[in-house]
Amino acid sequence: MQRLEAGGKAILIFGARQVGKTTLVQTLLRNTSYRVLTVSADEGIVADVLSSRDLNRLRGFVSGYDLLFVDEAQRVPEIGLNLKLLVDHVPGLRLIATGSSSLHLASRAREPLTGRAWTYRLHPIALCELAQLHTPYELNRSLPERLVFGSYPEIFALASDADKREYLTNLVASYLYKDVLEIGNLRYSHRLRDLLRLLAFQIGQEVSLSELGAQLQMSKETVASYIDLLEQSFVVFRLTGFSRNLRKEISKRDKIYFWDTGVRNMLIDNLKRLDARNDAGTLWENFMIAERRKWIEYQGLSAGLYFWRTHTGAEIDLVEDRDGQLTGYEYKWSNRKARAPQSFLDAYPGAVYQIVTPDNCLPHVSGLPQ
After folding, report:
1. Which single residue of 129, 253, 269, 290 has CA 20 to 30 Å from 150?
2. Is residue 160 helix, strand or coil?
3. 181-185 CB contacts, 8 Å cutoff, 24+ apart
């Protein structure tokens, strides 16, 4: 709110569909005294005006208002240039724009708005947010639920597993990669779904673009472009291998994780409880890495996140490089102990190593004391 009240810059909020961007903005504006114009770029007339580059039309559109809120802004061609005109030529007007695809909004908004916008990303609900409402005991009890059904806001309002399944089915079928299909102008949506399914089975593993391409009958360049679109639409994210050019380290292939484990499980049609499935450890790894990324981002910290592996098989799930301090994290759903790979400690003196289990995870992803 402080940056909104200060004015002078637009506020851009990115995030996947259904994570609550519109609700967040409406909540922030509920108790303000601003005269607010709320529009959706799904409306043709709105998109027409906001892509016009016509300063007089833009001024007339916002005349009498203190704040313009543009929802689904990724649908407006050259939205960035038009928001820049409003920022530069309509003093006192506050601007908020939300978009479900960073690709469109970033390419069409961020560059023209360089130095004229604050940018935020909103993800499925994070443990660090839940920690403000629930006790550590409650959070720990909810972990199996989060691993299976994920953390999209609506999931929390649904009581039965059947309702949660129906919601995730609709999310995956109708909303999740709608923007990807539109942005990429993809003719074969089934190939995108097949790719996502393959990636869902390979979380925690290094991904070969050539092997995926062979399975999907696509070139590895096409596979790479699809994964980039999925990443820009906040469906997946990647980790690269950490290496400082030691001969034994592997760093050429990436690992792909999902921002939401419920989405991942729905893609492989497996919403069984943890005690009835064989991928609990993999889910825990995905969940924890995503939560760590959210916490770092929401805290405004700067850190490089990687995985680490050698040709001899030594590996670490997550290596965090923050201000030159290396910390290796190994994620274990069970409380089974593990030792730090000696080759990692030898190669990087001063590095720290930690096992993260359900018993000690909350400080890692929420800032709560142990």
Report:
1. 253
2. coil
3. 183/101, 183/103, 183/104, 183/229, 183/232, 183/233, 184/225, 184/226, 184/229
Task: Write out the E strands in the chain.
Answer: 10-15, 36-40, 67-71, 94-99, 117-122, 206-207, 236-241, 254-258, 304-309, 315-322, 325-331, 352-356
Q: Which residue has the higher pLDDT, 183 or 332?
A: 332
pTM, full prediction: 0.91
- Residue 115 phi, psi dihedral angles, 5° rounding: 80, 0
Q: How many CA atoms lie within 13 A of 110 on its CB side?
A: 13
Pairing of the two strands 10-15 and 94-99: parallel
Contacts of 237 (CB under 8 A, 6+ apart): 231, 256, 257, 259, 290, 293
User: Phi and psi at residue 44, in whole multiples of 5°?
Assistant: -60, -40
| E strand or H helix at 93 | none
Q: Is 182 exposed, middle or buried (0-12, 13-18, 19+ CB in 10 A)?
A: middle
Cα gap 87→96, rounded to integer Å: 11
| Tokens of residue 315, six digits | 């590996």
| 306 pLDDT above the threshold of 90 | yes
- Structural domains in the chain, CATH included, are 2-122 (3.40.50.300), 127-366 (1.10.10.10)
- pLDDT over 90, % of the chain: 59
**Mind listing the pLDDT tens digit for each residue in 108-118?**
655 677 788 88
pLDDT tens sequence across 235-253: 999 999 988 766 665 667 8
Q: Identify the three-state secondary structure at position 345.
A: helix
Rounded distance between C-alpha atoms, residue 52 and residue 282, angstroms: 49
pLDDT tens per residue, range 110-155: 567 778 888 899 999 999 999 999 999 999 999 999 999 999 999 9
